[in-house]
Specification:
Elements lengths: L19 E7 L13 E3 L2 H6 L3 H16 L3 E8 L7 E6 L2
Antiparallel strand pairs: 1-2, 1-3, 3-4
């Protein structure tokens, strides 16, 4: 699936076309490291094409990006980016 936006998107993901939006909820003690708020990531279009199951794509994203944010967050929220209102698909909580 290619990006349907009029701009030439070479990043592999798009804030409008990607199916998933993953938000890492940063703990209060580490908010000074993220002055722009909680980090938001969008799923790669190629991963969505490779795996038809959005949950599989989400788990791979959480694993890959969790390595970067693991010590700063305990909650990761996954949203459906294409549906109206961006409903939450699931929440992952680290124990």
């Amino acid at each position: 699936m290619a990006c349907k936006c009029p701009t030439d998107n070479k990043k592999g993901y798009c804030a409008k076309c990607s199916n998933l939006r993953v938000v890492f909820m940063i703990d209060k003690a580490f908010r000074h490291l993220y002055p722009n708020g909680n980090p938001v990531y969008y799923s790669f279009l190629s991963e969505e094409k490779k795996h038809n199951d959005l949950e599989t794509v989400a788990k791979k994203m959480i694993y890959r990006l969790g390595l970067r944010h693991a010590s700063h967050t305990t909650v990761v929220k996954v949203y459906n980016n294409l549906l109206s209102g961006r409903p939450e698909i699931f929440t992952y909580k680290r124990v």
